[in-house]
């Protein structure tokens, strides 16, 4: 009888230990670090860091609703390059922010179509995606590399 109780008690303790370890440790990278890592890894034209006002103008979003953001865009109107990482306060807001970034890409396509074919091609390959409370936009010569850097930022 003591052996059976000891076996049950051991099983309960092991189960409790396993369930306690199963809580997912969420990685929450710094938005500016992600942006800076991308800019360092990929060749960009001269980039300008966006302010709260720029974010409001570019995306039609209220940056006060973000926990953090980092955005850089080409300083020249002739280049479409842009890297944006936004961390919203509530994950439920991520979808609306993603939609706003996608609208920005569509607007930029309209502006560059027939005017700058290389930039238009970059906009066609733009990446907009989410990871939890993070929303990411990349317009560059190497969006696949930018996307990988974004994805890798969430790995332990």
The number of domains is 1
Please identify the structural class as seen in this structure: alpha+beta
Largest sheet: 5 strands, antiparallel
Taking pLDDT < 50 over at least 5 consecutive residues as the criterion, the unreliable ranges are 5-25
Structure summary:
This protein is of the alpha+beta class.
Q: Descriptors for this entry?
A:
single chain; 156 residues; alpha+beta; five-stranded antiparallel β-sheet; 6 helices; 5 strands
What does this structure look like?
With 156 residues, this protein is of the alpha+beta class. It has one domain (28-152). Helices cover 49% and strands 19% of the residues. It has a five-stranded antiparallel sheet with strand order 1-2-3-5-4, with helices on both faces. Helix 2 (31-41) runs antiparallel to helix 6 (143-152) and helix 4 packs antiparallel against helix 5. The longest helix is centred in the N-terminal third of the chain and has 20 residues, at 2-21.
List the SSEs and their pairings.
Elements: H1 2-21, H2 31-41, E1 47-49, H3 52-59, E2 66-74, E3 82-88, H4 94-112, H5 117-124, E4 127-131, E5 134-139, H6 143-152
Antiparallel strand pairs: 1-2, 2-3, 3-5, 4-5
